[in-house]
Amino acid sequence: MKSIAIIGAGIAGLSAASDLSKKGHKVYLIEKNVEIGGHVAQWDRLFPSQKEAKIVVDELVKNLNNRAEVLANSEVQHCEKKDNKFELILTGNKNLLVDTILVTTGFDTFRAQRKEEYGYGIYENVITSADLEQLFKKHNVVCKTGNPPKRVAFVHCVGSRDEKVGNRHCSKVCCVTAVKQACEIKELYPDCEVYNLYMDLRMFDRHFEDMYHEAQSKYHVNFIRGRLSEAGENKDHQVVLKTEDTLAGKPLKLTVDLLVLMIGMEACHSQKSLNAKLGVRSDTDGFLSTKDIFTQNNFSNTDGVFFAGTCTGPKTIPETFADARAAASLVNAYLMS
Amino acid sequence: MINFGYKRNESATLDLDVDNSELYKKMLEEEPSSATCISCGTCASTCSAGQFTDFNLRKIMLLCKRGDTQSLEPIINRCMVCGKCQFACPKGLNTRHIVLILNKHLNAGKIS
Amino acid sequence: MQERLANSFDPFVLPYTIGLVFILTYLFIALIRVVKALPNDDKLKLLKHIFSLKIFKSGWEIFMECLLHRKIWKKNWTLGYMHTAFAFGWFLLIILGHLEVQIYAPHRLNLPWYPIFFRYFMMETQSTMQGAFFFFMMDLTLLYVLSGLGLAIFKRFRRKAFGMKRTTKLRWNDQIAVLALWSIFPLRFLAESFYSEISGGSFLTAGVGSIFHWFYDFTANEIYVRPIWWAYSIALGVFFIMLPWSRFTHILSEPLFIIMRNAGIREEHRNSGYGKVEIYSCSRCGICLDPCQLVSVASLRDSAAINYTRHLRLWKSEKAHQAASTCLMCNRCTQACPVGVDTAALKLNTKHELVNLHTTDQYNYLNTNAGADLQSVPSSVDVIYFAGCMTHLTPATKLAMTKILEASGEQFRFIDEEGSICCGRPVLLAGARKSANELMEKNTELFNQTHAKTLVTSCPICYKFFKENYDLNMRVLHHSQYIQELLKEGEIKVNPTAAKIVFHDPCELGRNSGVYDEPREVLKSVGQLQSTAYDGEESLCCGHSLAAEALPYRKRRVMSEDAVEKLTTNNPDILATACPACKKAFSETNKVEVKDLAEIVAENLV
Question: Which residues in A lie closer than 8 A to residue C598 (C-beta atoms)?
Answer without folding.
Answer: none
